[in-house]
Automatic annotation (TrEMBL):
Name the record gives this protein: DNA adenine methylase
Keywords assigned by UniProt, alphabetized: Methyltransferase, S-adenosyl-L-methionine, Transferase
Organism: Paraburkholderia phenazinium
GO biological process, one term: methylation
Matches recorded under InterPro entries: DNA_brk_join_enz, MeTrfase_D12, SAM-dependent_MTases_sf
Membrane-spanning parts: none
Stored SUPFAM superfamilies: DNA breaking-rejoining enzymes, S-adenosyl-L-methionine-dependent methyltransferases
Amino acid sequence: MTKVSLPSSDASLLNALLERLGDQPLTGLDYQWAENWVKSMKRRDVMAPSTICHYVGALARYFDWVVRSGTPLLATNPLRLLPKRYAIQGAARSYYLQKSCFGGKLEGQTFGTATTTPPGLNLLRLEEELSAAHLRLANTFVERLGWAACIERYDRPHTLFYLDPPYFETEGYGVPFPYTEYEKMADRLRSIKGRAIVSLNDHPAIREAFNGFHIETVDIRYTVGGSGDRAAARKELIIFSWDDTAQPAGLF
């Protein structure tokens, strides 16, 4: 990309933005590129919506200038092809996929059907479901942090953490979580100021990683993909960072 003369209000932002984009040829800019770029700012760079709007607006005005210059390298501004309220449409699409896919998977999604339950998405209940979620999260801080960074930020003597990491050797979470993460988690929980509870699948490797912790085993039946006789009986581990039998903790 080439830096051009633009209003001073966009100059500093655009120059920084062009350095981030690197040597992207104009001929490769299309709607798919614009969509992927916005997604990367959301997911990889974890930018705030307002920051993304500033970046998209500055670059869109730059592309307008390039298109008006008459160059054959960019006949259409790809950012102007994004639909209005693009962020809201993306959120609606994600909501639809999660409510409609099999098992609520984050990757490798397939459409879920059943003979004993209705579809997961009911548009007539949409406002009711969003309102219930709003009320439940009204007193909650939502962070996009790794588990270790979250513990570091909120660890206090009065804090009770509940950790529900990806189950060991189980797919479909959409993020890598190697065995070393469980080992790091066990090491970190040995030195926290507060208390923590971890739920995981019962696996010899998990028991080894959390050796020395107070562990309780509970029976559970996985009903995703089947119910009744088809439900799979499994065991799960409830791991406490303290001796719960000696110091039982009530949640309420």
